[in-house]
Request: fold
Amino acid sequence: MIPYTNNKENVTNPIVLLNTVGQEVYELATSKGYSDVEATLGIQNLCELEKLNNKQLSIIEAALGSDDQLRQYLVAFQENYLREKAKSQEAYKQSKKNFTKLKVVLPLLRNEFTAGLDRLDDILDFFNVDSEADVFNEAEQVAVLFRQQNDVDVDPINLKAWLRRGELDFERMNLPQYNGEQLKAWIDEGQWKSNIENVDYFKSLPNILQSYGVALVLVPFLPKTVYGAVRWIDGHPLIQISDRNHDLATCWFTLFHEFGHVILHKNKESFDGVIEISKTAQRKIETEANQFASKYLFKGDDLRKDIFDRVRKGEYIQPSELVKQYKVPMLFVAYWLIKAQYQPNFQKRVHIDFASMYQ
Reply:
């Protein structure tokens, strides 16, 4: 799949879908067998006319019909057109404003939604709704659920789009029945540990986890959304991870945090906005997921505590000493050094970009 690159216009003015009264006359004349309609009627630029004067109406009557029904029809037609034109102009202005709010989601459409009249139509197809109002209403409902779990500001449209992309990727998967025991066994066996700094390995995890009935979807980050989420669909956990910060260590932590939710909190949905183990007011369910991640990635919470304690005391220690002491990969030592602003410029970071998977 490649990113959405359709060059059609952003928003189509709905007035172009309506016949002017001149276009209506042209089609009536053509249906009666006239080939050169403008020459026959002696009316130039016929199709552009939005209103006919009495002289033009008389000419058309003489050529196309002799009773009053045609004149009455055309007069009513043009009056209706002018009313609809005014409505269309207002709708067009509003749709352009709406497109400005929605266009951020275009990269997530890839090449799957290109059948719309314009880009805005493609966005509506992506969301599987009939109108922009439906998008905004559904997005706010998702945002309400997120705000119940987090104290972090969120963009409803971005969050809805990010989650929608995960749902679409899930729908393409042919997953076996979810097997939580096999997933836990794979986590415990730790084959992943030898690939901690391997970006390609991390990107291959969706294929590995499918065999356990787990849907892992990697979706590029959108501003004011989340690091990760867990939803349960048809008995399968859908784990969705973003490349927020483009930091591989953060992706690993987010993944294992979501594993914690899957293993410990079956059939409970979670949207994780901020991942900070030190946050004192976290709910019990988030604390448990954090502890799960810390157990597997950092061998517990001692590394984090040590680094934050040294920050408070103003003490310095070589990162390599922390690696030896806690037997944790340098990538994860760097994760906490940076989090604690102990050594904010520490360079042991590995860049990861999910967008490149779809180019």
